[in-house]
Design goal:
By secondary structure, the protein is α+β, with helices and mostly antiparallel strands. Helix content is about 40%, strand content about 20%. A hairpin with a 6-residue loop joins strand 1 and strand 2.
């Protein structure tokens, strides 16, 4: 896809959202299945059924997906797609890889130490780019990727999150 095609695809959406801001608010959903056997949750993605379970550091055997890994994978996917969209919009050629890693102290989630946080202490996102863009263009590409990456911005600016139960 080139910049012209991307602009043509997005122009009517942008116009609609400017005229009707409520039309831009879309509720995304995810559902999991707790089947009662084992410590796992099945999540249906657009193309497959993913089964999450305990990380080996919490007693899992490593055969199921770790939700922490899935969070990092979502960050990589979103950052990668966003970077490609921004590069396309700017008319830049950029390929390569995206890498995320995060540090967890499993004492927190296992309740071993009350002072240990539950969740990631730090997450690092890295792009290894193959591009002929100038350093100024790369700086702009990364700045805009950071600005428009939904998962990155959600991690940086946690939304109000509620939990409810229907029994």
């Amino acid at each position: 896809m080139d910049a012209t095609t991307l602009r043509e695809l997005q122009a009517p959406l942008k116009a609609r959202y400017r005229e009707d801001p409520d039309a831009a608010v879309v509720t995304l959903t995810a559902d999991g299945e707790l089947d009662g056997s084992g410590v796992a949750c099945r999540v249906r993605t657009a193309t497959a059924l993913a089964e999450a379970g305990l990380h080996p550091a919490t007693g899992g055997d490593g055969t199921q997906l770790c939700s922490g890994d899935m969070l990092l994978e979502a960050l990589v996917a979103c950052a990668g797609v966003t970077l490609r969209a921004v590069a396309t919009s700017l008319g830049l050629q950029a390929s390569g890889t995206v890498h995320a890693e995060g540090d967890l102290d499993f004492r927190g989630t296992l309740g071993v130490a009350k002072d240990a946080p539950v969740g990631f202490r730090e997450i690092r996102l890295r792009f290894d780019l193959d591009t002929t863009a100038s350093q100024d263009e790369i700086d702009t590409l990364i700045r805009l990727t950071e600005r428009y990456c939904v998962v990155l911005q959600t991690l940086r600016n946690s939304p109000t999150t509620s939990v409810s139960v229907q029994a």
